Amino acid sequence: MIRLVNFLLFIENISDYSKKVIDNGQTPLDVYNVCSIIRESFCRSYSIRKDNNLYIYFDSTHILIKFKGNSLRYLGSDERSQALLLKKALDKLNGVETIKSQRMQKSTPGIFVKRLLKGESILENIIDLYNDKIIVINEFEKENMKSDIINLEELDNLREYCYIFPFPQNSRSTVDFLGLIDENYKLKYANLSNIKGIENKILYVNFLIDQKENVDKELNR
Fold first, then answer.
1. Residues of the chain with pLDDT under 50
2. Which of 34, 102, 122, 136 shows the greatest Cβ crowding within 10 Å of its Cβ?
3. Strand 105-108 to 111-115 pairing
4. pLDDT for position 83
């Protein structure tokens, strides 16, 4: 069975923007950063990483967006493509009242969106999630601040994990979010403070996965 790599970006909010703003090259910095995260999650030189999923949760609006790698369409390696697909997904729920039985709604092929109900867990919406396979990619001034910090390079199967990237790191909503899921899941932490930018951290995780899989292929020849 193919394991799916799940990335979760927890973010407080995002700037409002329009197609005109993007076309004029005036993409807000936070939108540009999110687009970089989308790109590094999926885009290879000539293909899409079909075994990756990216979830982006916006705490201010309770909107969860899922990018499903194996069915993504129209996602180019350019910022404009990513920004417009993200905008379309965010606009999908504008003016839509939350429905109790609401499921994720399709925005474009491979991109789904949902407004979470009060008290509903983000992680409840992630498929193939294992209780002891959740890693928070965080930054710590001192590694001994937590006893459960692990080294990603030492993990055998990096595909089994869900990687959570909270941003900003120390906001009240981030602390509350991590505290809430820590009550129900066994969280592990990885310190990648030497790698700046969430998009580069995701790039590194993808690199480790590719590297380990290439080694396994060589050994099985």
1. 1, 101, 142-144
2. 34
3. antiparallel
4. 95
For position 171, what pLDDT does the model report? 80
By C-alpha distance, which of 41, 73, 44 is closest to 55? 41
Residue among 62, 178, 173, 80 at smallest CA distance from 117: 62
pLDDT for 214: 81
What does the DSSP assignment read for 141-185? SSGGG-TTEE-GGG-S-GGG-EEEEEESTT-HHHHHHHHHHHTTS
d(CA 15, CA 28): 7
Q: Token digits for 194? A: 């030497």
Query: Looking at the chain, which runs of residues are DSSP E strands?
Result: 5-11, 52-58, 63-68, 105-108, 111-115, 134-138, 149-150, 162-167, 187-191
* Whole-prediction pTM: 0.91
Find the CATH number of the domain harbouring 120.
3.40.1280.10
Q: Domain limits at 31?
A: 5-219
Count: domains in the chain: 1
Q: Report the b/e string of 160-190 with b at 16+ CB within 10 A.
A: ebbbbbbeeeeeeebeebbeebeeebebbbb
Please answer whether residues 9 and 39 qualify as being in contact, where contact means their C-beta atoms are separated by less than 8 angstroms: no
